[in-house]
Specification:
Elements lengths: L9 E2 L2 E6 L9 E6 L4 E5 H5 L8 H9 L6 H14 L18 H5 L1 H8 L7 E5 L11 E5 H7 L13 E3 L6 E7 L2 E8 L2 H16 L5
Antiparallel strand pairs: 1-2, 2-3, 3-4, 5-6, 7-8, 8-9
């Protein structure tokens, strides 16, 4: 099917500059210039359907207008986008650098994000992805306390041992296992082998978190 040339057309705050690359499924993408000065790619069908009308600045403007920009929910929203899209963010490589994205519905509307997520339950809650390799979208996100997020955390990318909650002590050559409980990191013990430390960590997860690793 022939793709309609959208170059030069305007959709809300967006003006189409040129054709981008197709997605893996063959969807046409277009580079657009936003009134705020941002340049981003958008799916053609999102432009023509009215789903995408700004780079996200419209949502920000509306949030500021409604005095939401200082709320913890908006800070979570802003930081979520920042770590997925801004390469200078210190967390980018763990999020945007791994292909983690914010779904279009949320990217275009803070109000939609708030409607799906609801208010943050307590100051100890933050946004958490259920599937750590999945995107930020309604079915994959929840407000969670740090203990819950620790259950779901993948090993650090720079971990030489590749086991969550276990690190290698370069001086002694031994392995240290630890776990996050009741707002603090608790040391489980020091072990000669990685296998012993891993087993101790699993036992601690079952005891403190109720996690079955079998």
């Amino acid at each position: 099917m022939k793709v309609v040339d959208l170059t030069g057309m305007t959709f809300g705050r967006l003006t189409v500059i040129e054709r981008g690359k197709n997605s893996k499924t063959g969807q046409a993408y277009w580079w657009c210039f936003c009134e705020c000065g941002e340049v981003k790619q958008f799916r053609g069908t999102h432009l023509t359907s009215g789903r995408s009308t700004s780079c996200g600045c419209y949502s920000v403007d509306r949030a500021i207008k409604h005095r939401m920009s200082g709320t913890p929910e908006y800070r979570a929203y802003y930081n979520m986008i920042k770590r997925c899209e801004y390469i200078n963010d210190h967390r980018y490589m763990d999020y945007g650098g791994r292909g983690i994205r914010v779904c279009p519905e949320w990217r275009e509307s803070f109000e939609q994000f708030l409607a799906d997520m609801g208010p943050r339950p307590t100051r100890n809650h933050s946004i958490d992805r259920i599937d750590v390799n999945g995107h930020y979208e309604p079915k994959n996100c929840r407000w969670a306390v740090k203990e819950t997020q620790e259950h779901n955390k993948r090993p650090r990318k720079d971990s030489p041992v590749g086991v969550r909650g276990v690190r290698h002590d370069g001086q002694s050559g031994k392995y240290i296992a630890q776990i996050y409980v009741n707002g603090k990191t608790r040391r489980i013990g020091t072990f000669i082998t990685l296998e012993e430390a891993s087993a101790a960590r699993k036992e601690a997860e079952a005891r403190f978190w109720g996690v079955n690793n079998d």
